């Protein structure tokens, strides 16, 4: 039985994120979250950050909801619970996102590369955007 996936605008708790990591077979994130669940905060699922998800149909013949859940949600989990300062992990996550957009999302390589470039440019943790690397990490006072 599949778990209930968040809708756009839903809050995602650390416990729910843990279940999603298990669902998407993100074992390294499961281990990271279970080791220190108190270090993470609730966050809002916004689908494919930075672009209205319904516009995804322009870039592919797939259902935009499939791309949101097959490509963007796993990428959001990896970003939210990414290890701050780990540039190699972030790059690997973004490369996987590009491959998922091509293989699961049916995007042309050039379009997937544009999405990849956008997350590489806009995902820096120092930008402190709601979708920046490590966005689920609580800020220490």
Hey, roughly how much beta strand do the residues contain?
Answer: under 5%
Summarize model confidence as the mean pLDDT: 90
In total, the number of strands is 2
Shape: globular
Largest sheet: 2 strands, antiparallel
Topology order in helix (H) and strand (E) letters: EHHEHHH
- The neighbouring-strand order within the major sheet is 1-2
Oligomeric category: single chain
Helix content: 40-55%
* Weakly predicted, low-confidence segments: none
Summarize the entry for a quick read.
With 141 residues, the chain is mostly helical. Helix content is 48%, strand content 3%. It has one domain.
Labels describing this entry:
141 residues, mainly alpha, two-stranded antiparallel ribbon, 2 strands, 3% strand
Kindly describe this structure.
The protein is mainly α. The chain has one domain. The chain is 48% helix and 3% strand. The chain has helices spanning 14-23, 27-35, 64-80, 87-103, 109-122; strands at 11-12, 43-44. It has a two-stranded antiparallel sheet with strand order 1-2. It is globular and about 40 Å long. It starts with 10 loop residues before the first strand and ends in a 19-residue tail after the last helix. The mean pLDDT is 90.
């Amino acid at each position: 039985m599949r778990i209930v996936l968040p809708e756009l605008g839903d809050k995602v708790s650390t416990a729910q994120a843990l279940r999603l990591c298990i669902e998407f077979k993100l074992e390294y994130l499961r281990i990271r979250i279970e080791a220190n669940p108190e270090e993470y905060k609730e966050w809002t699922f916004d689908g494919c950050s930075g672009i209205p998800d319904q516009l995804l149909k322009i870039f592919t013949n797939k259902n935009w909801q499939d791309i949101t859940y097959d490509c963007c949600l796993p990428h959001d989990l990896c970003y939210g619970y990414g290890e701050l300062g780990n540039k190699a992990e972030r790059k690997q996550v973004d490369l996987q996102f590009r491959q998922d957009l091509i293989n699961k999302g049916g995007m042309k390589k050039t379009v997937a590369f544009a999405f990849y470039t956008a997350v590489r440019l806009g995902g820096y943790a120092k930008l402190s955007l709601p979708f920046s690397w490590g966005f689920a990490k609580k800020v220490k006072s």
